[in-house]
Amino acid sequence: MNLSIKGKGKQYGLFLAFFVLLSFVSVWGIANIFGDGSLHIDLSFLSPSVLLSLIVLFVIFCYLDGVRFYFILKALGQSVSLWYIIQITFVNKFLSSITPFASGGGPLQVYLLTKKNVPAGCGIAATLIRTVLPIIFFFITVPLILLHNDSLQALIPGYDPYLYIGVMVIFYLVIGSGFFYLIYHQRMIQVLIYKTCKRAGKNKLFRRFDMNRVCKTLLRELTHFTYNIKMFFKGEKKYVLLSVISALLFLLSLFLFPYVLVSSMGYRMALIPVLEFSAVITFITYAAITPGAAGIAEGAFALIFSGFISASSSTTLTFLWRFFTVYAGSLFGMGSLYYLMIRLKANDKNQKQQLTQVIEHSCSKLQLVYKYQVTKPSES
Q1: Looking at the domain assignment, is residue 132 inside a domain?
Q2: How many helices (H) and strands (E) does the chain have?
């Protein structure tokens, strides 16, 4: 994995540049479509008390993001320090923000967990569970929100509640069936992997790969993954419960940012509708293809809140919402990634030095024994 981090440095740099460019274009688009055409960000309403409230909420938001992952690992029987978990959570924020489908954070988190003796299969299971818990929440709540929230219904062209419910039910059945077969009918998935690898091995494009080794690795990690998913639900009940509670509190802290910003800007909106809007927007960002949901998140946010705020406030509100929920965490994530990579490199160097010392010490002992055996007087 060290290789991939070195090799992907330039790739991550390109992703970051694209994310920054796309975010700028998104804010510019919001200013011209929903705003007054000006890119001016008005920060005059950020009094010391408002700024302090946002900073405190940001700290709570980041802390809960780490805590929920910490309890998931605890439920899986893994003990890793909370501080280390918070660091790799920031790394996940950064890489998820700059890669399509937020795909970059998970693999590196799994690698960083292996450095703390967490098996890769367990790390993969933990990162998936962390993602699945909010998705389950959205699958339950978002349909109910759309069924009763008139403001959101008005934004959906040709909204038909019965058609909508039918589509969602079918979607739930497909996802639920796939997850069920993955956990309880693993044999089918294993056969599919084996046949796929066997066919790929005959293809010219894959001949340079050792497909037998790839197949064994995939089957091994699948076994570890499903085992750890089962272990999570069979794990210590208090950690399973704390995982769910901390995940819900994390989402609540995320949903509170728009409310604090809107209220601070002088607009009167009830708390519950703002939380509902935030839930729908976050649900949309989970399915976004762009890095960090850039463009899609800003567009959905500005569209939903455009009916409640003035055009002059749209750009400022959207930018600050993204700053506290994405940009700030990504900046800390860049620092965390750099810090952890330096530490890992130093640790690897120290381990090599220690290994060299052990080998040299062992060799010197062997030389002494050899010399003793050669010079030892023969017994008469």
Answers
A1: yes
A2: 15, 0
